[in-house]
Amino acid sequence: IFSFFFLLFSSFLHPFPPSSGSQGQFPLTQNVTVVEGGTANLTCRVDQNDNTSLQWSNPAQQTLYFDDKKALRDNRIELVRASWHELSISVSDVSLSDEGQYTCSLFTMPVKTSKAFLTVLGVPEKPQITGFTSPVMEGERMQLTCKTSGSKPAADIRWFKNDKEVKDVKYVKEEDSARKTFTVSSTLDFLADRSDDGAVVSCRVDHESLNSTPQIAMQVLEIHYTPLVKIISSNSWPEEGQSIILTCESKGKPVPEPVLWTKDGGELPDPERMVVNGRVLSISFLNKTDNGTYRCEAKNPIGRNSTEYVLIVHDVFNTLLPTTVIPSLTTATVTTNVALTASTTTSATATSIRDPNALAGQTGPDHALIGGIVAVVVFVTLCSIILLGRYLARHKGTYLTNEAKGAEDAPDADTAIINAEGSQVNAEEKKEYFI
Ligand SMILES: *[C@@H]1O[C@H](CO)[C@@H](O)[C@H](O)[C@H]1NC(C)=O
Ligand SMILES: *[C@@H]1O[C@H](CO)[C@@H](O)[C@H](O)[C@H]1NC(C)=O
Ligand SMILES: *[C@@H]1O[C@H](CO)[C@@H](O)[C@H](O)[C@H]1NC(C)=O
Ligand SMILES: *[C@@H]1O[C@H](CO)[C@@H](O)[C@H](O)[C@H]1NC(C)=O
Ligand SMILES: *[C@@H]1O[C@H](CO)[C@@H](O)[C@H](O)[C@H]1NC(C)=O
Ligand SMILES: *[C@@H]1O[C@H](CO)[C@@H](O)[C@H](O)[C@H]1NC(C)=O
């Protein structure tokens, strides 16, 4: 029973048993792929062999080996192993012309054969980038072509700019009819931009023969462009007496050096306070007369560019309110009271406000007390002066009125004198009354 099943099983494994009766007697081969210049092993196996000869022949039907006997004079072809079960040969330094169908024959009656296809891969040459010029002006068109020959099958070319793949490229492949290899090229077409300056452009060739190590050609782009300029200020709210540092940042290719600083279209007016050191303009002890437009100009062989900074020197006064403390507010109230009584004190108020540090240096309550006392004293003094003045004015006014009364009523000078004399008596009477 066991042998019955064994026979059934083996007949299942070999669905086409040879009709001659020699069971399992047929050659087995495999296709081989080899890189140009490499070595190809051609192996032919026979599971069961009753001492029947094996033979390898090339695509041109020439016999290479008959059992262990060499038939074709070719140093590249060698015997690896020869037995009743196997005939293996190797072909070294394989060339593209070695490609084709090789045949292993088992000399039974009739002869049984097995075909092995030898594929030879053409290795792409190191890629070359053409059309590269350096430097290139910004805005110019660049057409870089990467080319590689000798690949079989045709190699794949990809472009990268700083490791980022550029997809929109033109790919061309041409077959070299004699060698059956391909020359492939790819063109990268773009307008030079300043952002590409310093970028690494690489052309990468991938091919199955390269064993996943691509061939790469690289170029570093050099794009020339007009300067870009920017002014950076150290002080966003410049005030009188402070200083400011203006830095002119310029970028360009070639590097613009040095930069030119001007004010309102002319030279810097005060070289003692306005010092230029390289790209930096420093202005010390700012003054309102420094107001104006400061321009920084950068120039390189491609062109020039400039930018402006409008300087407004602010009054120190403007910063008082946010920085004043409570004692100063008390001072302000007191000075306002003084201002109500005497107009001449207003100027003093203004000056005292302009000098907040001096006020802040004193102790607040003391100052308020002194101010209050001074105000009261001044007020009382002024009231006394005003009262005294009014008394005097009223007295003198009465006297004059009396004198005038007499003169007005008189028709002529003599009468006037008489009347005046009379009125003088009245005045004397009134004077006495008043005293
Ligand atoms: C071919 O056979 C030789 C001998 O067995 C072996 O050294 C070599 O590695 C083989 N080459 C390939 C490509 O299999
Ligand atoms: C095959 O050859 C060997 C010697 O090489 C011999 O001993 C053997 O009997 C032969 N087998 C057959 C089936 O002819
Ligand atoms: C071997 O290569 C030939 C030709 O390329 C092909 O037709 C065949 O199917 C291949 N055989 C195997 C087992 O890969
Ligand atoms: C000049 O500089 C500005 C700002 O840096 C820039 O926007 C402009 O494109 C530049 N002009 C030229 C002609 O390069
Ligand atoms: C500003 O400049 C003017 C004229 O040069 C001068 O009279 C004035 O004192 C200066 N002011 C300051 C705060 O330096
Ligand atoms: C400078 O600018 C400030 C703020 O605009 C202004 O108050 C001042 O009058 C200006 N001075 C001059 C000399 O232009």
UniProtKB/TrEMBL annotation:
Which Gene3D superfamilies does this entry report, sorted A to Z?
Immunoglobulins
Please give the chief subcellular localization of this protein. Answer: membrane
Q: Which CDD domains match?
A: IgI_2_Necl-3 (cd05884), IgV_1_Necl-3 (cd07701)
Q: Name one Pfam family in it.
A: C2-set_2
Q: Which residues form the signal peptide?
A: 1-21
Domain Ig-like, chain residue ranges per copy: 17-114, 127-219, 227-312
Alphabetical GO biological process terms: homophilic cell adhesion via plasma membrane adhesion molecules
Q: Which InterPro entries match?
A: CD80_C2-set, Ig-like_dom, Ig-like_dom_sf, Ig-like_fold, Ig_sub, Ig_sub2, Ig_V-set, Neurexin-like
Transit peptide as a keyword of this entry, yes or no, is: no
Annotated compartments: Membrane
How is it placed in the membrane, per its record?
Single-pass type I membrane protein
Q: Per the record, what is one GO cellular component?
A: neuronal cell body membrane
TM ranges: 368-388
Q: Which keywords are on file for this protein? A: Disulfide bond, Immunoglobulin domain, Membrane, Repeat, Signal, Transmembrane, Transmembrane helix
Record-stated family: Belongs to the nectin family.
The protein's name: Ig-like domain-containing protein
Organism this protein belongs to: Zonotrichia albicollis (White-throated sparrow)
